[in-house]
Design brief:
It is built from seven helices and three strands. By secondary structure, the protein is mainly α.
């Protein structure tokens, strides 16, 4: 009883804690203006141009922290607050998304691998739990194993996301410093925003791996009982 209580507490609390950290850091540093007074869109354009990525466009998108890079259309999309904002947080997030654009242009191996895993992860996340639930309730170990295999593809996607995101953040720091977008005394604040955002990916990967391990243990237990 207690191990399961602890397990479910972890998979619920850890993601919530990570979300609170990123929202807290973003709220705090979105109210701190950067020394350059550049809007997020201007930060993104500056870094893109300095890396000769003139073909990558920048668009405003709806939503809260909905910022992302679309490799299909070569577009950096920034949420309204970060597109128009001239805060340390807006500069950090804009630079991070441009980091993905630079990865794409340089054919960064982990990014390519993650892109290749998208269909696997999509099928795995949608189909795995159907197979797993059937396998558990109908006591069909073969069905459960198939569900675990599909889920492993989705978990691998989560794990591969970590080096992609950390690398994009490292690139972002290098770019905002070298371009003079932030001062030396703003580096710590910028890194706090990037690190807080990275926590959400770490939490998601940790929970996914933990859940996969739990299901593997259930499968081994069922196999022994046959």
């Amino acid at each position: 009883m207690y191990p399961y209580f602890i397990y479910f507490a972890v998979i619920i609390i850890v993601p919530l804690w990570a979300q609170m950290k990123v929202k807290g850091a973003y709220k705090k540093y979105s109210q701190v203006s950067s020394s350059s007074q550049m809007r997020g869109a201007e930060v993104a354009r500056r870094i893109l141009d300095e890396n000769s990525l003139y073909n990558v466009s920048i668009e405003e998108t709806r939503g809260y922290l909905s910022d992302h890079y679309d490799p299909r259309t070569k577009t950096v999309r920034l949420s309204t607050n970060n597109y128009h904002g001239h805060s340390v947080a807006a500069a950090a997030i804009a630079a991070h998304e441009v980091g993905h654009a630079i990865q794409d242009a340089e054919h960064y191996a982990f990014l390519r691998f993650r892109h290749a895993l998208v269909p696997v992860a999509s099928i795995g996340s949608n189909l795995s739990w159907v197979l797993i639930m059937i396998g558990i309730f109908a006591n069909l170990t073969g069905m459960l194993l198939m569900g675990i295999i599909f889920m492993a593809g989705a978990v691998l996607f989560q794990v591969i996301t970590l080096p992609v995101e950390f690398n994009a953040s490292n690139r972002a720091m290098d770019q905002v410093v070298s371009a003079g977008i932030i001062r030396n005394d703003e580096e710590k604040e910028t890194r706090k925003v990037l690190n807080a955002a990275a926590l959400t990916y770490v939490a998601a990967a940790a929970v996914a791996v933990l859940e996969l391990v739990r299901l593997i243990l259930i499968y081994t237990g069922m196999s022994r009982d046959e």
